[in-house]
Specification:
binds flavin-adenine dinucleotide, Enolase-like, domain 1, 10 helices, 33% helix, 5-stranded antiparallel beta sheet, 4-stranded antiparallel beta sheet, 26% strand, 269 residues, 2 domains, alpha+beta
Length: 269
Amino acid sequence: MTTKRGRVLAGGTDLFLWLKSGKADVDVLVDVSAIEALRTIDVRDDQVVFGAAVTHAEVAAHREIKALFPALADGCRSVGSPQIRNVATLGGNIVSAQPAADSVVPFVALDAQCEIASSSGTRVVPLEELYEGVGKSRVDATKEIITKIIVKRPDGPSANAYSRISPREAMSLPVVNAASLIVTDGKVIVEARIVTAPVATTPFRAKRAEAFLVGKNPSSLGDLAEAASIAQDEARPRDSLVRGSGEYRKILVKDLVEMTLYRAAERLG
Ligand SMILES: Cc1cc2nc3c(=O)[nH]c(=O)nc-3n(C[C@H](O)[C@H](O)[C@H](O)COP(=O)(O)OP(=O)(O)OC[C@H]3O[C@@H](n4cnc5c(N)ncnc54)[C@H](O)[C@@H]3O)c2cc1C
């Protein structure tokens, strides 16, 4: 008897296109989209646990997520069209491994962790470590399944924001997107996470800009603007026929990072 090659199927918005074009080839599709345990959003005191088969539409419409993680709700709201958002899932967005995936960029800013299950057990890995390259995930969907995405609620006062530039509102790829998280001790910034894409083969963390912000007052607009300039300096967007020149997109990186930092600072009050 020959072994059947199986693969996880969720919303199918990416996978069916790959099957049609021959980019993927399987004998058996394992549809996980109706498994109840993968379909819940559990808001706890210390963390929020997202089932991997939760759709972008469900995240975008979730009242508590909009309040706690507006960056994620806004990212999910900008995916594709209502039809796509109603079926496309968080797990699929992660495993498809596009650097500018609209839920992944905010998830990386929020330091999300993924629980991955296989026949040999369960492991928890930071989402940002799951990218091997453009379209290449370290999760092997023929043997493994992402079950949960876990986001810890920061200890101190914190805020986050997401922004995206695309040619039109719906059904278009981001030219550039960005997400920022600011955590404070009530006075100064103790942690910042700044993510922008597609400016590298993975969602790109502007780590020099993040380090610059530590110890700064979140209401200092000059420091937030300086951090955005540092992020612009760090980012290396390439020329793209569909997205525009690298030079143009580098300018957008500064604008979007600045916008997300201002918005997050504003949300901190
Ligand atoms: C017209 C159109 C517009 C789009 N617009 C956007 C956009 O604006 N922004 C954006 O980010 N994306 C966009 N996408 C891409 C796509 O919709 C997303 O990547 C979506 O989140 C994929 O989720 P899915 O549930 O459909 O995944 P599927 O197509 O079911 O699966 C995708 C991959 O992930 C694997 N997989 C799925 N779930 C799991 C799991 N739990 N564990 C392990 N492996 C898993 C599958 O085996 C497959 O390899 C668009 C797609 C289309 C067709």
